[in-house]
Amino acid sequence: MTDKKLLPFHLNYTEVDVVDKVTGRPRIIYFPYLSCRFGSPTKTSREVLGLLDSGSDGVIIPLDLAKYLGLPLRDADPMKVADGKSTPRWTTEVSIILGRAGRYCSPIDNVTVSIPRDGDPPILLGRDPIFQLYKITFIEAEKKFLMDPYKPK
Amino acid sequence: MQRENRAAGWPMEVSKMQSTKEGMCSRKEEPINGTAGQWVVVHRGVVIARDDNMTKMLQLAEKYPEEEVYIGKVLFPGASFY
Predict the structure, then answer these.
(1) Which ipTM value was assigned to this complex?
(2) Closest Cβ opposite residue B76 in set A18, A46, A48
(3) How are beta strands B39-43 and B69-73 bridged, if at all?
(4) Is A101 inside any structural domain?
């Protein structure tokens, strides 16, 4: 993956104005979302926002996206989650193109991603491969994040 | 400057591309808004559709030029995952 064209990204967090389902109260929250496109051998999605998540070992996508791309699903060992419980999942391989509005990196091919069997998770961009390819700095106080391609010393 | 031309076609308030000293761009758009858990389609910086079903949003987004549209999820307050 080292010969890929990887672009730097210095972006603001995305503002999300959300209505709480339970209380009905509006809230404003900010998330470090990065645009990317997911591809299979037969189809590529429009851009989707993935949440940069250093606490996630890898990339997680919802089942709807995997089905949309026509990806084959393989049984896999359950994911261990932060509270120690296990979540059943499938895995598959995708291509990921990071970038936005015509400013795209080269595809990162054959990325193994997890698809939880339950729930409808957001897209999580975890350490493998995103944090392996980039030096990522979160400036939480300014609601910004900086991604610079990692260059081995 | 293809990027600047594209941005110029957007409403001013939703597409203020901010150059940094490194020559990269940051974006400032209207917030994503909706009910927690919904998927949204954003066209030219404006939310045009919301649904709990991501597949519907993926299919709707296909109708728009790829450089003008994206799909996001309205996360709930205090969200943490896995």
Answers:
(1) 0.91
(2) A18
(3) antiparallel
(4) yes
